[in-house]
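Input record (Table S2, row 498):
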Amino acid sequence: MFFYLFGIIFLYLVWKLKDYFDFKDVKNYSKTSTPLIKSAFNIAFLSQEEIFAYLRRNADRFQGSYAHWFFGLWSFEICRAKDAEQILGSAKHIDKSNIYNLLHPFLKTGLLTSNGEKWHTRRRLLTPAFHFDILKEYLEVFREESDRLVMSLKSMNGKEVDIVPIATQFTLNTICESAMGVKLSGFGNDGIIYRKNIYQMGTLLLSRLLRPWLMSDFVYSLLGHKKQMDEVLKPVLAFTKSIIATRKANFTNTTIEETPEEVELNENIYFRSKKRRYAMMDTLLQAEQQGLIDDEGIIEETDTFTFEGHDTTSSAITFIILLLAHHPEAQEAIFNEIQEFLHMKDELTIDDFNRFEYMDRVLKECMRIYPPVPFISRNLAEDYQHDGFVQPKGTTVNIHIFDIHRDPEIFPDPEKFDPDRFLPENCAKRSNFAFIAFSAGMRNCIGQRFAMLELKMVVSKLVSNFKIVPITQREDITFVGDMILRSREPIRIKFIRK
Ligand code: HEM
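Output record (protoporphyrin IX containing FE complex):
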């Protein structure tokens, strides 16, 4: 096996050496990190936490964006807002880089991973699923699930809890109900296995990404990694498939029962049925009836929404709670803001949530410090000039949201929690690309408003019912390199009933 591996790596390096000489311009660029063979091997076998730290060290060393040469692959690593603006603000560089191909066995080419015409068509098709009227329906799901979360935390009053699995279960419940219209409780242990295997997949993906010789499907399979990945993915893919089947059966039954007038009415409000709550998947099922998408398409989008819609929000909730726990003054200010809006009524409306200015600033500041998606990646559609050097067409550009959010020139004392950074007058002083937790430009997050509403609902319920007390200290957190921001250790919190 070792002999095989050595041979493959050697052939790969000889083949890639040509690229090194092709990229003459970048090679002379002073901010270039070119780990030589020995250190490149060290990087390839770094642990998840070491790779996260390595990237932060590089951002620090170059005090901004830099070029990176790693096993024959050139990439441009963006750590500053002005460079991110050049890429994300352009209508040209909208294609995802090859890194996303690693997600194909899981998400195929759904909205997150597709490019070109397919992406345009799907984005148009799915945008109505986030219409204001529909968000109102999701709000009810968020309310029910947040109430359930509060009940469960009350039963653990004052005890130390690890918030990570609690947040993940909450967000998986909400996405299953709002995206797929089914309650997770009806699927036994499937949700738990799904969550566990998504974590394992992240680890396997990173190890493939760090070892470029594994990019070839042939080599990946030859060395036995594909089998391992297939085993991890099997229950994940089966989980969404079974949910789609359940919803599909209901969808067909419901449409048969409706009168032509009802069908017309439902179509006008994005296929919402009066008989049951709308789910994002209904948009896809309706599109299927119109011949705009096939079975495969429904599966890839459902997998995409289930994954993107729960793991990101779970990371966001985890770190929002941690920061609130460390800032009782912010908990109190949010509570006071809620009281102003609750005046004379029991529950908050979608308009109230949209008017919460202070809470909005707190959530953004939390996602600035702890962006749930720490990096994204693009493929340059044409040559790109940077600092007098040309990054050639086809180069992978990695945009490190984590480092962009820590640029001390834009966010002085970046680790300090200061929601006032998001006061309108302060936002006006900086680039629109300085805070990009939801990315920006044409390929920004389609679920941004959905996510903000979910976060505001759960935060308002938690702050109204509990005093949130920290156990984990911020400086004790070790982050791991993954698609989503995760801590190696549990994040421990106490919820004390008010
Ligand atoms: C706090 C929560 C969230 C954060 C921080 C977040 C962040 C992001 C980011 C940074 C991207 C760009 C990805 C890239 O360029 O590779 C993205 C794209 C996307 N997000 Fe989110 N997201 C969140 C919640 C959601 C939710 C709740 C959904 C679905 C219900 C969702 C669905 C998507 C999809 C489908 C894309 C791909 C959009 C496209 O390429 O057209 N996200 N998100």
